[in-house]
Amino acid sequence: MQRILSAELPTHVGTTVRIAGWTHRRRLLKSVAFLIVRDATGTAQVVVTDPAARAAVEALTEETVVEVVGTVTANPAAPAGVELTDPAVRLLGPPAVPPGFDLFRPTLTASLPTQLDHAPVALRHPRRSAALRVSAAAVAGFRAALDARGFVEVHTPKIVGSSTESGANVFALDYFGRPAYLAQSPQFYKQLLVGVLERVYEVGPVFRAEPHDTARHLAQYTSLDAELGFVTDHRDVMAVLRDTLAGLLDTVADRAGPALALLDVGVPEVPAEIPAVHFTEALTIAGAPADEPDLAPAHERALGEWARSEHGSDFLFVTGYPMTKRPFYTHPDPARPGYSNGFDLLFRGVELVTGGQRLHRHADYLAALAARGEPVEPYADYVAAFRHGMTPHGGFAIGLERLVARLVGAANVREVTAFPRDLHRLTP
């Protein structure tokens, strides 16, 4: 007999089926016992009246893996309107050691550090696993949106030979006796691959050896990167990002509907044209000093509130960040060279995406490095590629964990990360 998932039970009323999953909860009443079995799609209620079957259920511990064969019976009071009756219950493994916290309650009462210490079990809670399903749907949506626009998925090295992007903020390691580093981003490689494939994207881990201990930072996170050639300026990149986000969120709504419903959240609408302000205007809106070189989290929150109240938008582009705060490969604004053709996208008051137009002429790279007093040697292979003809190009990177956290209303990115790595956590 083929196994049926709990979500499929309403289509099998009146038939005998086999389900399997974890013992989510037992409710032992005087005349009847209820066994709640959890699987990947939800829970199923099993009604136990036979004394022998009841004795087996009474002996179960939470999280013990079981198989149940029974008749699907309609009952409006049961989950999804059906339940299993006349069951035969069989253990598929030894009795489980119950977890140190209740997984059957609507929310986990254990502290976040406790949940993370016991992640293999805590992640089984429906709300925690729902966030992972939203994350998976977001990645699928990112891929689908860019595939539809002629982008090619690529895979770039995560072990690199030079701490090029920000030497003090990389993880060093021994590579067969030579110094090497974990890649901070695929930035250089995706630019070089624009010279091969024109439009590329990557989904992969990035590593930041930054001693941040905040609710929005991780030492390893998943970056959704894209780069495209033949752009006029950063606004072409912003347009592609807007369409990518819209497609991504459509996929989340389509593929993760039950998870969103369980979390009681909806998918925000992406405006046909996301409102945008220049960095200098953003400082004014946020009430920051005019000489502030960057936006602090408090400024971003204020800008998020402004975008919601003035434009009804959860999204806001901030363009034209000072060149001093952008990487050397960023293209300056031709009209205001002190400012960049770069941008951030804020989502509900938090920086979600960084992007912009890149330099594409070899001479401009040499000049940019010289202006910052940086040697060419660490970037030699990267910079040399621009001698052979490169299209005007640009791109962006989305932080997956931040995106999912803002989508589901999580206060901490660790709540939506299966096994986070941060300043203090290296296990499990």
UniProtKB/TrEMBL annotation:
The record marks P79 as: Important for tRNA non-discrimination. Gene3D superfamilies: Bira Bifunctional Protein, Domain 2, Nucleic acid-binding proteins. This is Aspartate--tRNA(Asp/Asn) ligase. Belongs to the class-II aminoacyl-tRNA synthetase family. Type 2 subfamily. Its main location: cytoplasm. The keyword Protein biosynthesis applies. It comes from the Bacteria. It is found in: Cytoplasm. One of its GO terms (cellular component) is aminoacyl-tRNA synthetase multienzyme complex. The lineage of its organism: Bacteria, Bacillati, Actinomycetota, Actinomycetes, Micromonosporales. L-aspartate binds at E165, R208, T354, R358. It comes from Micromonospora echinospora. GO terms for molecular function: aspartate-tRNA ligase activity; aspartate-tRNA(Asn) ligase activity; ATP binding; RNA binding. Homodimer. Keywords: Aminoacyl-tRNA synthetase, ATP-binding, Cytoplasm, Ligase, Nucleotide-binding, Protein biosynthesis. Residues 142-428 form the Aminoacyl-transfer RNA synthetases class-II family profile domain. The keyword Repressor does not apply. Aspartyl-tRNA synthetase with relaxed tRNA specificity since it is able to aspartylate not only its cognate tRNA(Asp) but also tRNA(Asn). Reaction proceeds in two steps: L-aspartate is first activated by ATP to form Asp-AMP and then transferred to the acceptor end of tRNA(Asp/Asn). Its EC number is 6.1.1.23. NCBIfam families: PRK05159.1. Transmembrane segments: none annotated.
